[in-house]
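Hey, quick one: can you model this chain's 3D structure?
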Amino acid sequence: MQRAPLPTIGVKPLNQRLTFHWPTFVTFLLALFLPAAPLPTPAAESAPVPKPARIKQIDLIHFSHTDYGFTDHPSVCHELYRRYLDVALDAALGTTNYPEGSRFCWTAETTEPVRAWWEAATPARRKAFLEAIRLGQIEVSALPLNNTPFLNREQWKTMIHWLPEDLWTAVHPRTAVQNDVNGFPRAGALRLLDAGVKRLFTGINEDSGGVPFPRPAAFWWKMPDDRRLFVWLNIGYGSGFDFFEPREWRQGPVPRAADTRYRPPRSGEILRADEPAVRAAHRRCLERILEIEKSGYQADILAISITSQWRFDNDPPFPPMSDFVVAWNQLGLQPRIRLVTVSQAMDDLEKALGPSAPVQQGEWTDWWANGTASAPREVAASRMAKRYLTAAQSPLWGPMPDSARRTANELYRELCLFDEHTWGSSLSVALPYSLDTQGQFNEKARLAYRPMAKAEWLLAQRVRTRLINESEGLWLANPTKAPFSGWVKMLRTAFRDNYQSVEDPQTGQARPILGEPGLQPWGRPTKPEDLSPEDVAATFSDSVPNWQAKFWVEKLPANSVQQLRLSTRTVAETVATNPPPPTIEEDAQGWPAGATWPGMKKSLFLGGLGDFVAIKVSGFAPRWVNSDIWSAGGAQREKMRQEHFSEVPARVKGKATRQETPHTILYSQWLEHPRLKWAVRRVEIWKHESRARLTFRLNRISSLDPEIFYLAFPLPCDGVLPRFSSGGESFTPFYDQLPGTCRDYFAVDAWAHYPTPEGDWLWVTHDAPLVTLGGPQPLAKLRKVPERTALLMAMLYNNFWYTNFLGDSPGVMEFVFDLIWRGTFDGDAQAEALAQSLTLEPVFQINPAAKESPLLIKHLYQP
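Sure thing. Here's the predicted structure for all 863 residues.
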């Protein structure tokens, strides 16, 4: 995703710092409204440029930066990339007689286009492709996309096995590429090493982000298991053009490929091969090299990458580049240029820099992760899909058929593409309702909603296939790695009789089926009481008594199935007295301010649980204000943050209500806030387990102004840093991070674990994957650990970005969180198992006495 710093109005400078430059701005406006003048014929200037002191060779890597969107609708992007591979293949084959080092070389930045191309290619084209790889003119990198830090463990397995195994073996990826994005999950690095890929090439876009340390540079990234990945911090993924040309050739801002008013550059328009042009390019190159050497770069080899100049992203190969390199080298210019693929460059870099490269450890957190919070519902759908897939793959259902495995793999592919770094049009915020913006986000959202629906259906098929032939009764299954205690809920219409209880046939124990109000589809409201405050549509009654049913389950074992018998018999709930219920503190409005169970020295949470706060930005054109704040230095930035950011907390609308059952105590409280039509928070506290669940629902009022929503979780663990889950791995923020990486917020799979001498606290998120420590930290660029390490702030919503992400996401959103305490804890494995059991509720099937049709079993229920 090529994001243009705001001061250039959508045209991305190769120096990607956010600095406003009036001459550049005026030039941009003139380019929009005046015909483009032809490029002047370059001429060598008379003043000599000092020769480089060290750099003797430049390895030039040519590729197209892969954005599945941004410049074009994603479906168009996928087609472009397949066609680009044909262009690159023919360009490579057409230059096999060129001198070594100037033959056309192309690196497929991502594997998804290679997979699609290979599936459609003829045997002859496949043979030619593999020959170009053998000759070293085409290379396939190791990853299918430029990723965000929201992929889970299974998705990372999918990422590494994106190509068919025989094709992976044939193309033998040796280097992974991560361009544009400001971070890379350590989970991904570990999976790369598992696959035999030991190098990572990066081209970070510093707009609204940054690099771990000054570049160009190499380092060894050491993993927790002591394995190492060799990493190159390239200057920028398109920086190579800036080494040879004084200004960009592209016009725009970001024209679509279908816009015939714009086009890719042609031979003679950039990188000209005539002697005057090459010598002018040489002079420009020397100037850039001297800048690099003055910054302290010590090696005699430099690797830079280059894209075409149509849009900068999603652009085709530029075959005349070979002629430019031939002319350069024939003139004997120094440093020498070598046109190479990425692994050839990484070979050189490792030889030159590997012995002296520093070793770094820690998670590589991503500054751009905050953009994902612009679409909370779509993110929630993607996480729901991942949970369904986890449940569908449980060994509880028996061996996974090949057909089901193929379905799961395809859904994981779609979820990986959802978690890819591109979220929409370049004008998604500036023109949020344009057809291009709407079309691109519609395609992105499909990658969450479609897997959610199909994964739920796959799970249902697995459940039915396993339980359809069992005897009559309600069959309850826990497909997770930890026992489950809690409510099992359903609509009353799931029953075929007026059942009042469920019985365990083995023990004879019976539990009552309790009722709750709910929404009745096609139920016409007849009085105000039929509509809850949430029901602003006023179409169907949503407060129908006993419309929902629930019964309590106690410690259903992991990966187990239990048979229950439905009964019309009314029974009383058996009330447990051991252990005794918690001591609950309430604030002046009746909302819980603490809950302590026997054996605990501290409360599960502190006062302020579920407090809501929004960040408001003041000033004209507020996203430009954000840009100025981001670009400012430390003290000045903090001053501007204080001037332009204000925290707007929600206010309670009245006392909390309290409902008690034999198993839990439920508190509900309505809130009011100027940015919300309504909001309600509910916390359910378990009586006989040190556990609570907070559900927060809000209805956001439409606005394109930048803002961030946070929800507070104050825990009694200050002075202790948590462990966060990321991609199935874990890290400790601030302590276990690469230098210069994002500490303002952290992307998490599901949990944060606080180990303390008084026990272990586990915080689990179902829907919101971003968390901040110590309070709201908008554009803070934190380096020091905040004082309140145990004030977790879940980021519910964030539309600070000015491009690519969603500018406005109004309406109803729901976020669910769990808190749990244990006296002792078995580290990450137990945290993951508990988080899984808290976010994945049991599934059940009701079998009648009548047997199911064999035809339905064969043709419908089998996955």
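One thing worth noting: The chain has three domains: 42-361, 371-578+844-861, 583-838.
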